[in-house]
Structure formats: C-alpha cells, structure tokens
Amino acid sequence: MRVTVRAHPCPEGDGRVQWVLLGAAPEGAPPGEPDAVLTEAARRDAALKEWAYVQSPIATAVYDRDLRLTGANGEMVRLSGRPEEAMLGLQLTEIFPGAPFDEFGRLMAEVLRTGETLRTDTFFRAPGQSRKRAWATFFTPLKDGDGRVQGVSIAALDRTEPHRARQRLAMVNDAGARIGTTLDVGRTAEELAEVTTGAFADLVSVDLLDSVLHGADAAGGSGPGGGPEDTGAGGPDAEPVRRAAARSVLGGLPGEPGGAFSYAPHSPPAEALASGLSSLHRAEAAAIAAWADGGGPGLSRCLGGKGVHSVLAVPLGARGATLGVALFVRHPGTEPFDADDLLLAGEIAARAGVCVDNARRYAVERSVALTLQRSLLPGRLPEPTAVEVTSRYLPAGAQAGVGGDWFDVIPLSGARVALVVGDVVGHGLQASAVMGRLRAAVRTLADLDLPPDELLTHLDDLVVQLAQDQQDQAAERLPGTVRETGATCLYVVYDPVSRSCVLARAGHPAPVLVTPGGTARFLDIPGGPPLGLGGLPFESAELRLPEGSLLALYTDGLVESHDHDIGAGLDGLRTALSGPAAPLEQTCDAVLDALLPRRPERPKDDIALLLARTRALDASQVRSWDLPAERSTVAEARKFASEQLTAWGLEELGFTTELVVSELVTNAVRHAYAPIRLRLIRERSSLICEVSDASSTSPRMRRARVTDEGGRGLLLVAQLTERWGTRFTAEGKTIWAQQPLAAAG
C-alpha cells in the first residue's frame, strides 16, 4: 500500500492551519495513477457540497466578476419564476429590471469593489410569488486563495413571520396610543376603524349596541359577552346595534352612522355579540353576502362588490359586558387572515372596548352631573326691581367634564338684590354636588342679610368643613388619597334706593363695570383668598353706581383659553362690553362671540356669565319718617302710613299696612332705642314696610298662651304679609315686612 501526502500551502504568516490530504493506492501502482481513496472522498465531498447548495431552503445565486449569473439553487429558481438556463450569463438587472433589483445591482457592484459583505431588508413580491414578503438579502464577496474577489453570492432569507410579528406589535402599540384619545363613544369607534384600515384590514366596520351609543348601561350577563344566554344569536330578543364607524381602502364605505338594525340570526357578527368570542371566516363574497344583507346600511353592497375572502368578527367588550362588534375584511390580493391575526384583532378590540366603556361610563356620569347642575342652577332668573338681569351658562366639553360654576340672583329686603357668581375646583359629580351645597348656603346666608365680607367668611368655614369631610371619606375608601375642595366666589349687594353697591370676592376675577356712557373698567376691589383656606379675612368695597350702570360677573372659563393668556381674555371682555348700551341679551351674545369664536369643540372649562343693569327707585317711590321713642308715636306712624298709601292709590292695603306699622313701631318703642325710623317702599310688585331702631336685639315670633295679653304681634305680621324678617346694620337693626301689590287690585 502506497500512502500519498499532498500539502496545500497557505499564505505565509496569515495564521491559518495548513490543509493536508492523505491518499492510498496499491503497492506497485504507477506513481501517476490517482489515489483511489482520495478520488472517492473528493467525489463524495463535492456531491455533498452540491446538494447543500442546490437543496438549501435559503435562496442562493452566484455571480462572476462581471456580475453575470453562473448558477442558482432550487429555491432561488423557484422564487425567480424562470428556469436557470434562461438566466445564466445575465446580470440581475437584465433578468429583473426595476425595483428593488436596481438597488440590488448597485449593492453587488459595491461588494465586488470593497470585498465587504452587505445586507438589506426589503418587502416586495418576488417574481415567482403571488404576494409580498419580507426578505433579508445578503451580498457576500467570493474570494480566491489570494483574497481576490472573483464573484458575488446572493442569499435571500424569508423574514416574513418576524416582520409580521413586529408589525403586529407596532399595531398594538399604535392602537394603544391612538384609540381612546377622547371620552366620546363615537369618536373612539372611529379611531378603531382608522387605526386598523389599511394596516390590518381592507374594510372595517364598528357596530355598537344602541344602548351604548345612547349612554345607557350595556347588557350584563354571566356569559363571556354578558349577553342573553337563553336566546339565539341575533334572535328577536337581541338588542339592535348602530353603525358607529366604517372605513375602506377601496372607497364605498358600508354606510354612515344611522338607524338601528340587527344582524341575521347565527351570522358571525350575531354570534360574536351573543357569545363574546371572536371568529375567523374564509368564504367567497356570495357566502358572506347571505348574512351581510341584514348588516346595516350598505354592508352587503360593499362586500359583494369588492369580493371577500377573509372576515374576522370580533366583539368589543369590557368588564364582562359586550358593547358591540367589529368586522375586519380582506379582499383578494392581500394575505388571508390567520390565527395570529385573530389574536391581534382580539387584542386591539379589547383595548378599544375598554375605551368605549370608559367613554360610555363618562357619558352617563356627565349626563347625571349636567342634570344635577341644571337642577341646582336657577331655571329662571327673578325679575327684581333693583336690576335687569340676564345670564349664559355653557358646560365644559366632554373631555374636561362638567364643572362647578354657578350664579344666582337673590332678592333681599328693602328692594335690594344680591348677585352671586362662583366656581368650584374640579369637575364631575363631586364638583356639581359641592356647587349645590355652596349655592344653598349662600341663599341661606343672604336671607340673614349678612354683609358681603361676613357672608364669605361663613362660606369659607363651610368649604373648610366640606374639604375635611371629603378627605375623611376618601381616606376610608383609599388610604393616602388626597382630594382637594376649594372654590372662588364674588358676592355683590345693590340697593336701588341709595344706589349703593357693596362687593366682596374670594379669589374670584373682578367684575366689569360699564358706565351709562359706555366706558368699561374692572373694579378695583380686594381680591381675598379662595374659599377653603380658612382663617383669612375678606374685605368689602362700596361704591355708588349711576342708574343704568352695567355689572358683568363671570367665571374664569370665559377669559382663559389654551390659545391665549388670561390678560388677553380680560382685554377682550372689556372691549366687548364697551360702547353704547344695548339690550342685555344682545350684549351677552356679543361677549360670547368675541371671546369664544364659533368652534366645533366645547369649551375646556365651564363658563358662567351674569349681566345686571342697575335701576334706581324714584324719590316718589320711597317715604321715610323719623319717630320719637314715645307711645304716642304709634298712632302718628299709622297716620303717616295711611296718608302715603292714599297718595300712592293703595288704599286697599291700608288696613293691613296699619296693623303691620302699629306692631313694628310698638315693638321698637317698648324694646329698642332711638332713633326710630319708619320707611315705606313701593316696588313694581310689592309694598315694603320697614322700622329701624338702635337696638341689636332681634325679635322672635312665639306662640302666646290663652292667658297672655301680648306676644301675638309678629305672628299677626307673618300671617298678613308675604315675607318678613330682620337685618342688622351698623346702627342697629331693621325689621321689614313685604306685601304683594296684587292684593291691592
């Protein structure tokens, strides 16, 4: 046996191992004869290499130094869609002109020049394929033993599945960012259609239960979808749906939002609504049109006209309730939906369902808050003698939520009137509830005829107590929770007899005063701290107003906006109010038009605006007398009152008025101090009788016993008049009683 050793030298100093081939031949064989063992091994190795190249699942092709094809394996031939013989000797751009092969040709030339491997990731339809796929293409230099580049190999690896996985993940992230940007049910459905049309499906329709679109609670139940379990899918007892959104890449949307309808029994959408489970359907357009006929406006026409091969019916649900169903459709020319697509659609629909449910719940809460707020605000403003009033109230848009703005007009004794505007911190039911309590408290305190600064002090104490109560309740439900309660308020009292106006504010914007000449300015009155801080004083400011002056009270939502600062808003308000006097309704509209340009969206905060134009009582409508503190004064006071009623033509009120005057003056003479004053005020609709004295002791009405000789006077006054009461002044007190003038007719 003769052993042959053949060494293949390597370049000197390159650090590679030298290859040695061993061969064996029978003893005596001519030296030139090939070694039998070596030849057989070489053949086997060559065959394995050839098989590995030809049978590799990675598409591979080899090009020479002129970038002409010298060979391609079976996978590359299959993807090319042409026989290998027809491509040999041609450059890649000659075989397949156009994109992306022009770029591939450029990369091959660069690899041939630099000797460096390049990679590119593309998404295209290979000539031998029917659909686009994702490819990772490697361009590798082919070097000889001396390291010279003699050609280029191309290897194309199908990366469609990882590519789709990344796309699905990106779509889930995109859906999370773009669905649910508002608290509007319809807009949320539209966002679901926008996100998925084109990127996931060719046609998308979103149908929601009728009750969901109208803000009612979705049907509950123990099944997966929360729907009825004792009726067939789409049966006569199934709740109808309405199309909330629809989009298509080919046009011809399947109906705009419209009337209610029901899907055919046991159709895929009906099954999804009943079971709460998603389903995948592959069928021809005719088969789908069989149940699409009842699928709302235009669905059958849209599906049948474009052709359909794949449909997903996915319920929209949240918190154990089914809210609607989404249909995802693909037309021929796109990949049919598969099981992974069904999972992806379910994930997106689940997120959308939560957003729809949040919007629905918010709509319910907003409706309740609006109803509560409107019930607490004055439905119709009174028509006091002192001022002419009008108002506007605009609730905030859905995104911000209903706030706690309020206003009020409160008639006071002596023909005076109180004007109130307030703003509670926060939005929603809590703000509306706090607003209601504050408005009721202001009315109660106003009935006591407290000065404005003192009234705000009492209101501040109430807000502090409310904040503490709410904090304690929140801590019981969720320890560590901090809930803020605060408010601002402006309280104004105007007296048409003296034309005196007393104002105090607690952190609220200053009112605007417009003189009869049309000059508008903000009143410089002490700001005061917001309500709820506790322990800080409030100050009042007093001024005399010419008859016909206009007072504008408002909340900050009128002058604050995202597109300008509050300074610009205040300037705009002053400008809008300046100028010749106009009807109050017209002035209100002018202010809103100037500060709230007509936009489709609602304001970001509640807006309350109250305008009051002052009146003054003529001297002929008011008479007063100073009385001595003597018993004979009572008869004299009755005489004064009777004569004045005759002068006013109100003799029919003489008997009642004399009894009231007699009782009030008698009490002042017996239990109070001088000076004593009687005043009669004739308003448009009432007659007011007032008796003032220097005592700060308030009389009280009591039930006299049968044997008592007195104690029935105030009871008699209360029975004979419409209203009566006491107000305290710096000099003492005033007891008043009011009779309607209608009694005189």
Low-pLDDT windows of residues:
11-19, 218-233, 704-710
Give the overall shape, derived from the CA principal axes. Answer: elongated
Beta-strand percent range: 25-35%
Strand order of the largest sheet: 10-9-8-13-12-11
Query: Quaternary state, please?
Result: single chain
Region (Disordered): 217-239
Domain PPM-type phosphatase: 387-614
Domain GAF: 180-366
Pfam family, one: HATPase_c_2
Question: What would you note in describing this structure?
Answer:
This is SpoIIE family protein phosphatase. With 745 residues, the chain is α+β, with helices and mostly antiparallel strands. It contains 19 helices and 28 strands. The strands form six sheets. The chain has a six-stranded antiparallel β-sheet. Strands 4-3-7-6-5 form a five-stranded antiparallel β-sheet. A hairpin with a 5-residue loop joins strand 19 (512-514) and strand 20. The chain is elongated. The termini are far apart. The relative contact order is 0.06.
